[in-house]
Predict the structure.
Amino acid sequence: MSKIAAGITGIHGYVPEYRLTNDELSTMVETTDEWIMQRIGIKERRILKEGATSDMGALAVRGLLEKTGIKPEEIELVICATITSDYHFPATANLISDKTGMVNAWSFDLSAACSGFVFGLQTAASFVQSGTYKKVILVGADMMSSITDYTDRTTCPLFGDGAGAVLLEPVDEGLGVCDSILQVDGGGVNHLLMKAGGSFRPPSHETIENHEHFVFQEGQAVFKIAVSKMADVSVEIMKKNNLSPDDLTWLVPHQANMRIIEAVARRMGIPKEKVMINIEKYGNTTAATIPLCLWEWESKLKKGDNLILSAFGGGFSWGSLYLRWAYDGNQNID
């Protein structure tokens, strides 16, 4: 009996309408457009003014179901990769299912920060590859504005809000999710985290006054480690699967920092024209960056294209996934 392959058979994204530009940000905190562009590569980011992560996720899912012609009740499992859940509980995936009528699906959240979509894609694919389910939706969604300190000039230029959703189904063998390398190092906790709000440091007057319910990052340390880990794991998965730079159609990196993206591509020997980059428009939307790239590039994707997805996130978490695209994207555009 041949192995069941799991592939992405549809994708849709959502970003809020409101654009927070560098010029506007410079009126809120001491920074400039030139400073942000030189160091990060972000021109603007989308901000959700009303609603929550589940609302963005639901809009992405509705668009996905409409494009693919799948009925909500056909979906069997929903996974939401997020670190900005609507509540500590219930899971944001549960709320997305309820808002979109996916009444027959069970669901759960996956927390891996900026690596969330890559971790979630391997998890979702495993349920299809095992034969357990035939229709699984993975959502990568984060409302980073809800945990961004707009008085901190080192972090507030980085983040935006957005969501992306993909449908995974059985596909022809040789297509779909082929391989992944996923790794973590909990020792990185002190370099990139939200200090308070969990069981280790519950909310209090002190934590609120100290601005501990926002993203905290030691920028230089995170930058060096992110470049090293993302590059290492991406090169490793290429070697493991006998892929040369010529074999690769697209590198789809997490959109955290333009300098990180460029460094990873150079290490892999991948020219810039083969790298999906939209950080200038959306900033770092955490678990949503990779699916938003795939959504924007969908019309250019062809059946059999070789893609490597690569990410690095807080905690630390990082990974790379080798994917062979399962359909001609121009056949599935709105």
